[in-house]
From TrEMBL:
Catalyzed chemical reaction(s): an N,N'-diacetylchitobiosyl-diphospho-di-trans,poly-cis-dolichol + GDP-alpha-D-mannose = a beta-D-Man-(1->4)-beta-D-GlcNAc-(1->4)-alpha-D-GlcNAc-diphospho-di-trans,poly-cis-dolichol + GDP + H(+)
Pathway participation: Protein modification; protein glycosylation
Compartments where found: Endoplasmic reticulum membrane
Organism (species): Loxodonta africana (African elephant)
Similarity comment: family membership: Belongs to the glycosyltransferase group 1 family. Glycosyltransferase 33 subfamily.
Name of this chain's protein: Chitobiosyldiphosphodolichol beta-mannosyltransferase
């Protein structure tokens, strides 16, 4: 009898200890999750700057962050060097070349869903899951399911509508596009918190999708700023090893001088100066997709070339178009057919650290982003403004929320108008009293609020609540 009582007591104690151990492990797990956030992009992490900035701001505010997505290009060093941020690379599945498009797309969605779900199973549970949309399928459904299972909250950051981007390729009435719109609208309502990039999008989400979203304007990161002249020279020399447009046309007469197309460095004094008669540097960045018509820029450059040949007081022009994307080969072929004398075009893919330096060294930025929905703003312009770089941007519905015509840049409708703006801005270049310097002065004088400062003011209070 005594032995039975002792055995029962021992069993009860063991069960209690196991229960306490389980509760302790769940408490430890909950404590870890309370400061852990997942940031998800079903796209290239290196080409998702806004989500990189979310991850950095979360880390700066004490959260541990898992950054999930396709690791096709390198994110910025500041993110890679942050001990609070871990990257989980997903495998990008190419569309199958067999079967009808609906089947191909369906298989891709199912495989991505399983891959994303498995990545969540292996990681610590997250108190918040930040998801970029687009692409939102199957990400929104999977992240919502994960939040239901592990108790987190889903935050969808609306950059645009995925169905509208698909519509550029397939047409707005294509069955796939209509299906994508239905899924996006349904799944978008499952989120706990919604962020978006413009007031116009916030209003559209509320009126047409019954989704309440908080507008969080893109702001430049701290590393987007004007580039000192010595760093400009180092960048030009580095790029000149690959791209002839950055090289000096002749060797220096003085062996103590080092030249690029734009700058010269005196090894004796260490002084870097702009070269007399240097070309103007125009920069545009792109994902080479259907929502950017680069034929507008090419036609404007042809008109600029003719003006120069006809004797207008205009500089030679180096046009740098950076980025990767599906239409790059198409436009590269068009560029290769041009026979310019005074315009040089190159299309490099820059390292993450070199891109801000290039923007901070340029004389003018050009943006050809024409939103598929008319509701998002080009972040490339935000980055250019962070570098105090004036911009010419093609007009669309809500561009006025970012580009103020005749204040921080110019807005154009077609190649004729862009060519006229290039002529006006580069007349008598470099002109200290010209429009370019006036726009740059306005950008310097306007307080450039940086991303993290804005994020702490707008997003962090929503998470605390």
């Amino acid at each position: 009898m005594a032995a039975s009582c002792a055995a029962l007591l021992l069993t009860s104690v063991l069960l209690a200890l196991l229960l306490l151990l389980g509760l302790w492990k769940r408490w430890r797990r909950w404590r870890a999750a309370a400061r852990h956030v997942a940031v998800v992009v079903l796209g290239d992490l290196g080409r998702s700057p806004r989500m990189q900035y979310h991850a950095l701001s979360l880390a700066k505010c004490g959260f541990s962050v898992t950054f999930l997505g396709f690791y096709n290009s390198k994110p910025h060093d500041e993110l890679l060097q942050n001990d609070r941020i871990g990257i989980v690379g997903l495998t990008e599945l190419e569309m199958l070349a067999v079967g009808p498009p609906v089947l191909q797309y369906g298989i891709k969605v199912v495989v991505q869903a399983l891959q994303l779900l498995w990545a969540f199973v292996k990681m610590e549970p997250a108190v918040y899951v930040f998801l970029q949309n687009p692409p939102g399928l199957p990400g929104i459904a999977v992240c919502w399911l994960v939040c239901c299972l592990f108790g987190g909250k889903l935050v969808v950051d609306w950059h645009n509508y995925g169905y509208s981007i698909m519509g550029l390729v397939h047409g707005p009435r294509h069955p796939l596009v209509l299906l994508a719109k239905w899924c996006e609208k349904l799944c978008g309502r499952l989120s706990h918190l919604n962020l978006c990039v413009t007031y116009a999008m916030s209003e559209d989400l509320a009126q047409n999708w019954s989704i309440k979203a908080v507008t969080v304007y893109d702001k430049p990161a701290s590393f987007f700023r004007e580039t000192p002249l010595n760093l400009q020279h180092q960048l030009f020399v580095k790029l000149g090893c690959i791209y002839p447009a950055f090289r000096a046309c002749s060797e220096p007469l003085d062996p103590a001088m080092e030249l690029s197309a734009f700058t010269e460095w005196d090894a004796g004094s260490g002084l870097v100066t702009h070269r007399w008669g240097r070309p103007a540097l125009l920069v545009s960045s792109t994902s080479w997709t259907e929502d950017e018509d680069f034929s507008i820029l090419l036609e404007a450059l042809e008109k600029f070339e003719r003006l120069t040949v006809d004797g207008e007081n205009l500089p030679s022009l180096v046009c740098v178009i950076t980025g990767k994307g599906p239409l790059k080969e198409h436009y590269s072929n068009l560029i290769g057919q041009k026979r310019f004398q005074h315009v040089h075009i190159c299309t490099p893919w820059l390292e993450a650290e070199d891109y801000p330096l290039l923007l901070g060294s340029a004389d003018l930025g050009v943006c050809l982003h024409k939103s598929s929905s008319g509701l998002d703003l080009p972040m490339k312009v935000v980055d250019m403004f962070g570098c105090c770089l004036p911009v010419c941007a093609v007009n669309f519905r809500c561009l006025h929320e970012l580009v103020k015509h005749e204040e921080n840049g110019l807005v154009f409708e077609d190649s004729e108008e862009l060519a006229a703006q290039l002529k006006m801005l580069f007349s008598k270049f470099p002109d200290p009293a010209g429009k370019l310097n006036l726009f740059r002065k306005n950008l310097r004088e306007s307080r450039q609020v940086r991303w993290h400062e804005s994020w702490k003011r707008t997003v962090l209070p929503l998470l605390v609540d």
